[in-house]
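Lecture notes, unit on protein representations.

Consider one protein chain, 215 amino acids long.
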Amino acid sequence: QKQYIELSGKPIIFYTLDAFQKSAIIDDIVLVVGEGQENWVRDEIVEKYQLTKVRSIIPGGKERYDSVWAGLRGLHALKEQPEYVFIHDGARMFVDEQILTRGYENVEKFGACVAGMPSKLVDEDQFAVNTPPRKLIWAVQTPQIFKADLIENAYAKLMEKVPDNITDDAMVVEQMMKVPVKLYEGSYENIKITTPEDLEIAKVFLAKRKEKYHK
């Protein structure tokens, strides 16, 4: 699976988790993995790299929303219940403290927010169309951040009867709770590793970060 592919000797998911581990904003991590992978992830990633904020490792489900719901239910085992929940893709390894800080500032104000970046609008043949100002068209990323009770109530409603068009957590909150979701600036480097080409791009981004922090 892509999140376990190694870059510079470490799995992609290490870099993702390490950003949350080092963040002053994040208190606890509930890690959702594929069913049957729990022990391997605990031994080869969490304990190996001393990711002490990972409080539990739980199996996900068939669909993304099943895994998010499992993670939300896993929050109840924490000693202190969170005020806010950051939901993030394990394969987005370039999340950083600036993205997390902007997200935290926005969720405090609005109760629901999502990282993203301005994008372009195209037609069915992938030609640019009469595009509105770029500030009106955004490509959504993660983390997607919510007040804890808001996102849990939204998912509880969703799981009663899942619509066909649910694609992310923001849509769950919008449709189930009728709550608007604020978009805030993520980063063009905050890519999700999905294809072999993404891996090549990630190598470049990782090398640039190492050069930056070793100067």
